[in-house]
Design brief:
binds coenzyme A; UDP N-Acetylglucosamine Acyltransferase, domain 1; 176 residues; 8-stranded mixed sheet
């Protein structure tokens, strides 16, 4: 852990193998060699965050990387530099979040999804498993596929059930 550049809130838990404040793969060429660039940002983890095993959370490059209040992240996922993960969002296992990505609040990102740099995902949106998200996705939708497409409205809201299984059940039940 990069202790001087990782700022952690209350009730933080993380499992074995997870690296906090890793140096991102930002490279420049000098004199025919590739070198890692200096990074300016920190990693900020707000209150009540829970991270699984073998995850990598990068430092910010130009700005901070921010994991907001109440976020859960499953095993083997990574969060890129300058990314911002919104309050109460759940990132499942094996998810690759690139640099500068913004994910809204109360989202669910299913396993094996990849999100391209600078993509923005709105609030209350569910991204289905195995998606390649290469464009912005609005709030309140279910989207999946490669490339990721909006499939339908996501009617799930937090008062419709508290677990990820509730969310997936509601997504199927609330089909339009
Ligand atoms: C979003 C999700 C629930 C799919 O919802 P849905 O729209 O109700 O999907 P359905 O099962 O009714 O399938 C509808 C069609 O989309 C396809 N499809 C479903 N999910 C897909 C995905 N993620 N990517 C590509 N195609 C998908 C199905 O094959 C089906 O195609 P068909 O009509 O040609 O047969 C599902 O993709 C998902 O991500 N589930 C989450 C699993 C999960 O996270 N479990 C917890 C693990 S810890």
């Amino acid at each position: 852990m990069n202790e001087d550049r990782v700022i952690i809130g209350k009730n933080f838990v993380f499992q074995e193998g997870t690296v906090l404040g890793a140096f991102p793969l930002k490279l420049e060429q000098k004199d025919g060699r590739r070198l890692r660039m200096q990074v300016k940002g920190n990693l900020i983890i707000e209150d009540d965050v829970d991270i699984g095993a073998n995850c990598v959370l990068n430092l910010g490059w130009l700005e901070d990387t921010i994991i907001r209040k109440g976020v859960f992240i499953g095993h083997l996922s990574s969060v890129g530099h300058d990314a911002d993960i919104g309050e109460h969002t759940v990132i499942s296992v094996h998810v690759g979040i690139s640099g500068h990505v913004k994910v809204g609040k109360w989202c669910y990102i299913a396993p094996q999804t990849v999100i391209a740099p600078y993509v923005k995902i709105g609030d209350y949106t569910m991204i289905g498993m195995g998606s390649v998200v290469d464009k912005d996705i609005p709030s309140g939708v279910i989207a999946y596929g490669s490339p990721c497409m909006v499939i339908r409205e996501n009617k799930w809201r937090p008062d419709m059930g508290s677990t990820v299984d509730d969310l997936i059940e509601a997504a199927k039940r609330e089909r339009i």
